[in-house]
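stuck on whats below:

***
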Amino acid sequence: MCTNYAAARRDYLFRHYGVLPPDDPWRDEIYKDYAAPVIRRASAATEAREAFLATFGMVPRKQIPPGVKVFDTMNARAESVGEKRSFSGAWKKLQLCLIPVEAFFEPSYETGKAVRWRIGLADGAPFAIAGLWREWDEGEAGKAYSFTMLTVNANEHPLMKRFHKPGDEKRSVVIVPPSEYENWLASRSMDEARSFLNLYPVEGMAAEPQPLPPRVTVKSDSNIQ
């Protein structure tokens, strides 16, 4: 699972993912209900992609009715994504997206206490996580969007099994290789989409402990190109 990640920089969106960045800025590190860029097909009739801002968590806090206990929807389990009310509609409609990231963060308890680790690709390149997006009608305010990351069991993965509390099931986000970006977004059935939900090879990944930043910052204008 993943509840915190480093979003890809503005200039990477065009250079690495082939899309124009959204006009509005986003933060360096993304947490629940923060806005961040996601990428989808512009339409079913074209292979063109588009990037837009959406909030992290399929059901944003402001969309949870009063009196209902706040729940987290940053991650959707691949095994049950078609059954859970929060995710099933987007999954069945194949509202698939790529989440552009530079790294994601997970806690390791190997020392006996939680230690934050930064996880990314071995070559340091930005990458994309498989996700789902959803649209919300906010009346006069217009439309808003949200997204979730898809996860798979990682009990046998040499790296990802090292994270989360002892005794908990180990989970991992799904990293989509660049060669599969278009195929993932163009999936024509739930079975085809499910074929992409796999663990990433450990030899292509790197991880190291990293403390929390002193404060979360907004993407600076120096990154705008």
Observations:
- Confidence is low (pLDDT under 50) at residues 216-225.
- Residues 2 and 89 are 21 Å apart (CA to CA).
- The two ends are 32 Å apart (CA to CA).
